[in-house]
Structure formats: structure tokens, C-alpha cells
Write a structure and sequence with these properties.
491 residues; 6-stranded parallel beta sheet; 21 helices; 42% helix; glycosyltransferase activity; glycosyltransferase; EC 2.4.1.-
Amino acid sequence: MAGDKLQQAQQEDAPALHLVVFPWLAFGHLIPFLELSKRLAARGHSVTFVSTPRNIARLPPVKVDHVRMVALPLPAVDGLPEGAESTADLPPEKVELLKAAFDGFAAPFEEFLAAACSGDRSGGEEQSGPFARRPDWILLDFAHYWLCPIADQQQVPCAMFVIYTATWIAYCGSRQENTNHPRVTVEDLMPMPTWFPAAPPSLAFRRHEAAWLAAAGELNVSGVSDFERYMRAEERCRLLVVRSCPEVEPRVFPLLADLYRKPVLPAGLLLPPAPDSDRRDDVSSADHGALRWLDAQPPRSVVYVALGSEAPVTAEGVTELAAGLELSGARFLWALRAPGGAAAVRLPEGFEQRVAGRGVVWTGWVPQVRVLAHGAVGAFLTHCGWGSTVEGLFGFGHPLVMLPFITDQGLIARIVAERGAGVEVARREEDGWFGREDVAAAVRRVMVGEEGKVIALNARRMREEVVGDDGGCRQERYLDELVECLRRYSS
């Protein structure tokens, strides 16, 4: 106890940091980077958050001091639609154009950083006060392979903030490990690699998931593959900061420091804020129609369905998912978003009329944290993006119905299934196709009968083991320790 008080006093006496935070142009990245920024700013540190004008305008309002938004216009690229500034604005096949445009940020970012380090206050009053201090660190994302050389010129250290699981970082591996143990075929990419010891057989990618990973290792229009971006950026960063913690992935963190030969720091889960803070300027989320509908449903009777803004769901997939929800007989609230670049999603003819009373489809914005906190919600059908998993499982203890697609989502689904806290929708191995019967069967297993009760209990226990009963204070301590490490490794 005395040691904790001494450490707290030392933290209060230490000067505040100035951090430049620069996420990749996807809302699955922008949101956790913004949440990390707010948590650091709440501790008295100054954060300069860099993105494009339209992305900044679409982010939730920041209600803490010491966060400054800097908008850099996205360079034009032939074939990239006007106004497309995030992956949510594009179909999957055009995201490589966004990466090409993103690489054009190098010159304007170099100019911005030089001004920030020289004390140039040409930006006016916003750049006075705490933001007049030269940046102590840059926290960057996987795509910024060109940024570290720019930072080196100004002698500003870089750390990579990884929004994925620690297991995914171990799966990707360092360049040295990939050189020593190359993975060439789709079959090579399915199991955990040789440098990940004693991985359970269940912790593996399906064939269709590994095929996506193989494509991520190929050159695209930008001239640099996604894996090469990650490796180049990682090699130049002093630290890796991970949105996870040892309570979730106990065997992985000790491996990462040896694997990458640098400190790998948990940032904690960045658990969702209290529902009262989940608001938008144009909509009072407390009065949202989806919540009013939930108010009329029995406790723990509703499956909340949300596949994020960027899951590559085909029109056929939407049809089968809808038919599966209808076939399951369960109550459901479906937050349905059109795929990137599409104006709308077509549901099966007559679907909404047939499920009226027990199911509702919401195509606009839904206050997800408030929905997950509602007493009528009993399960979460999710794509297993790490942010959504953190919110649903670790934030509120909901069992999961899991329909993973890309990146580390398959690994997350297998980790949760191994703990008995969710059920994965069965899919065809070679291409990932799923049918309505597969959806209905998974929903029924989670929502109906004794098996559903056991799965719900496992989900609550998993949350308790990770979050504890201290209101999330354990998770907040990871951020305090992160700040101390940033101070320690800055010189």
C-alpha cells in the first residue's frame, strides 16, 4: 500500500506527456485510438489526434480536456471516390486505393511534425499551452510504415498501438521468425506458427480465413502488402502497446517480448464507458427507438445482432442471416449496416412483417453500449471484432453467437468457444458459406434450454475473471503503468 502511494505521488510530480496519436482510416481503429486518447487525457496528458476532416467530424464528441484534433486532407488517388476517407466508405475491393492515398500523408505529416517540434505556433491559439510542448511520443497503427523515419528526423520515439489481440500479434510474428519459418501456402497459415508453443489444436484458422490472410500478404495497388506494412512499422517502433491484458491471454504476453525483442505493454481492454457518455449531438441515445423497443421485451430474451461497419457480408449472407434469425424463433434487435459504398441492404421480401413483434431491424445508428447494457439483451451475435467482443463479453458479460470473417476474428471466436462463453455459427470449410439452419442452431444453443444457461454463466464468469469486482480499476491500472513505461523508454 505504501509503495502504491509513493508511485502515485511520483506520477503526480512527473511532467505531463504530449502524445501524437495517428490511427489507420477505419472506424474499428479510430474508435479505440480515440478511447485510448481520452483515457490518457483524463490523466492530464496532452493528446494530438490526427486523421482526416470527415473522419474527425464523424467521431463521437470528446468530452475531456487536453485532446486536440488535427485534420490532414486525404491526398487524391485515381479511382478513390470523392469523400471516401475511411474503409466504411468503400467496398472491400477498393480499400487498397485508400492505402495508396494514406501513403500520401507522408509529406503533410512531416510538415506537421516539424512545426510541432519547432514550437511553431502558426496554428494559432490551439497550439499554445500544453500543445506547444514538442511531442514526447507518436502512437501509430499498423499501416504507417513511412512514419518512423519522419519521426527519427525529429528525434520523437514511436510506439505501435495494436488494436488486435496479443494472440494475433504472436500469430503474425516478427520478420526474423517469418524468415526462419516461412508460411507459403494457405495450409501453412491455418495453424498457430511453430514459435507459438503448446497452442491447443482448436486455436487455428479455418481454410477460408487463411485464404484471406494469404491475400493480405500480397502486393496491392499501394505497392506494399498489409503484412509488410505491419513488419516495417513494428521494426522501427520502440514499444508495442496492445489492447489486451494477461488476464485474457495469460500465456501470450511473456512470449511477445522474446518474439519481438522489445517491450510489449498491455493497455488493458479499454472497457466501454458508462452508457451516459455514449451520445451523439444529433440524437439523444437514451431516447433511441431501439431502446424503447427493448423496454417492452422480457429480461435477457433478446439477441442483439451487429456485425460492425466493415464485415464483408454478401447479399446472400444477409439473406441467410435474416432467414436464420426468423427460423430460430428468438427475439432479436439487428443493427444492420450497408456494406461500404452501398446505399442500402435488401432483406428477404416480407421478412420484417413475418418477425414483427419479436424482431426489429435498425438500419441507422444504434447506441451499442446502451443496447448491450439493457436488461432485455441476453446474447450478442457478433463478427468477433475485438472491440465488439470487449464491449459485449467483457463489458457486460453477454454470451456470444459468433460469425467471424477476417483478421483475428476467427482466433477470438475459438478463444471464446474454448472457454464455453459462446457458440460459433457452423460454416463450410472451403469458402466460409453459412446457411440459415446454421444461424438458427447457434442462436438456439445460446438462448434456449440448459445449455444456454451454462453458456451464459460461463460468459459472466469469464468477465469476472478478467475485469474483477472493482469496477474496472484493475484495467485502469494498465494505463497508469503504460504512462510510466512511456516516460521510462522516451530517452
